[in-house]
Amino acid sequence: MLKFAVTHSLVLGVLLAVAGLWLGPVRLPRDLVIIAVVAGVVLIAVGMGHGQVRDATRRLKGVPRSWEFPAMLTASVLLTSVQAFMVLFLDFGPALPLFLLPLVCLLTSLLGLTVLASLRNRHRLAVALAPAVAVSLLLSGVWWVMAEQERERRREGIVRAFDEPPVPIAVLDAPGWKPSDVWIDGGLPATAVDYVPVDSSFEPDGFGLTLRVEPAVPEEETGWAPLYKGCLTEGGTAECEVRGDGGVVVATSASGDVISSLQARVEVADGMIATLTTNMPDDARDDPFVEFPDIDMAALAEHVRTAGPEDAEEVAAAVTD
After folding, report:
1. What is the pLDDT of residues 266-315, one digit of tens each?
2. Which of 4, 71, 116, 244 is 20 to 30 A (C-alpha) from 193?
3. What is the pLDDT of residue 159?
4. How many separate domains does the chain show?
5. In terms of domains, do 122 and 200 share one?
6. Are residues 147 and 9 in the same domain?
């Protein structure tokens, strides 16, 4: 039975790890449906495994209370499932905990079965479950500490990036949008801050903005006027127009009547161009059946400004929240 227990635990542990790696970091309520589907598949697999173990133990002669063996194995797998979903909800970057799930499942099962085999009283299953639950709680604490440490490292990295960026960092100080990531590229040089809607019901799901700052390259070097890169008036393909009092250039890229992206370009500092670009989700990009959001890029660009020292902590907190 030991060989069967090892195989059963490892197979279901690998299933949990694969499901976790495929699902990736999850957010509620956005991912509620896919979480329910994956949880249902996991429960079906656990139930099928429980039935196989139960039938195998029933065929053995001289095994008292044979139902306890499959019950202990199933409980260990379910406790490991809790670890898998906890890692996904914490979303702290490294996938190491997911790769460890088969080992966690195996060790939890063996611990419970060892205690179960060493006891002969009526309540031995409950007693055997206690150390398995304790290990699960201990691991939950370990994952939480790791997530907090990773979050703090990321927060400190963002704050340091604001200290001496290669070019100014711009922020979108507009209601309804919050930072989701910060990018610094010293080679170009360029800086960028990604934004997502505060309202989780914003359609399409996964839509966002990127606010990028880079030096304006003289027209004689590129053939484009700095704010009119890729515009029809400069020999490009994008429809461009000047909007607002701040000299915002809005560039529209489209295929026929289907808009693929919008950009709002404005000079935020001497020789520095800030470009606010829409980011459609991959599964909706260039899809004629997905409506491009009604968004006023020129109005948003009026809320673009260079970041000050006070913005570092605020952006870092928003990104790592």
Report:
1. 999 888 999 999 998 876 565 656 788 889 999 999 999 999 888 999 99
2. 244
3. 92
4. 2
5. no
6. yes
